[in-house]
Design goal:
The chain has 251 residues and is mostly beta strands. 10% of the residues lie in helices and 32% in strands.
Length: 251
């Protein structure tokens, strides 16, 4: 507590609200330490007073600690008594003295209080299928909630004649076997085409030159010289004609 920057001793500091009603006096340094245990959330009013001084005020906000609750098991059968263990924690630490209450499915009013380990076991007998609501509460803590499912065995769907729900897979038939396709026949290889053999061209026969036999008449001794000369001329002419014919045939 200060006044224009100067510490005020012997000032009375009073706290009121959220289940708190206490006070104490400042020391020479103008300070005071007060232990406070709020029993509810909200705002605590703080007032500092001293004779010849104006009253000074401030506030302290009281918020709830976060709290969680879990159930084990998380599901049960209708009309079957089941021991369910509830665990209540706050930021990982167990919460002792938390009230765990159950409602719906015919279990209204069922409750229990957690021990030093933050746990409580409650025997639950649900009379109808559905969802049990679970609520955990404690002063200065936030409200924690969870659920427990109640199912009815039998039937073939998610709900039966009693309006209950069933575990997944109840009443479902076996899956039909997958259709198998007939194996494909191996394709016959295409016939191999016989290679085509090009006809061989017969070699061209070289022209044959027929020799022309020229008969010569032997001159008898004593024949006429003029006649022999004529025979010689005719023989030469015949040879020339034969040679000419041979050349023509080659062309």
């Amino acid at each position: 507590v200060t006044s224009e920057g100067t510490a005020v001793d012997n000032a009375t500091v009073t706290l009121l609200g959220c289940g708190v009603d206490t006070n104490d006096t400042t020391d020479a340094s103008g300070t005071v330490t007060i232990s406070v245990t709020a029993t509810s959330t909200g705002t605590i009013g703080v007032t500092a007073t001293k004779d010849t001084y104006e009253d000074a005020t401030t506030t302290v906000d009281v918020t709830a600690y976060p709290m969680t609750v879990t159930a084990d098991p998380t599901s049960m059968l209708r009309a079957t008594t089941t021991n369910v263990t509830f665990n209540v924690t706050s930021e990982g630490s167990p919460v002792e003295g938390a009230l765990v209450e159950l409602s719906e499915c015919g279990v209204d009013g069922t409750n229990g209080t957690t021990d030093e380990n933050g746990t409580v076991m409650i025997s639950v007998t649900a009379t109808s299928a559905g969802t049990i609501d679970v609520t955990a509460t404690k002063d200065t803590y936030g409200v924690a909630t969870t659920t427990v499912a109640v199912t009815t065995p039998g039937g073939g769907g998610s709900s039966g004649g009693n309006g209950g729900t069933y575990p997944p897979g109840w009443g479902e038939g076996s899956p039909a076997p997958a259709a198998t396709s007939a194996p494909e026949e191996a394709a016959s290889p295409a016939p191999t085409k016989a290679p085509t053999v090009a006809p061989t061209k017969a070699p061209t026969k070289a022209p044959t030159v027929e020799s022309t036999e020229i008969e010569t008449t032997e001159l008898k001794t004593g024949s006429t010289p003029g006649f022999g000369a004529m025979l010689t001329v005719f023989a030469i002419a015949g040879l020339l004609v034969a040679a000419y014919l041979v050349m023509r045939r080659r062309e």
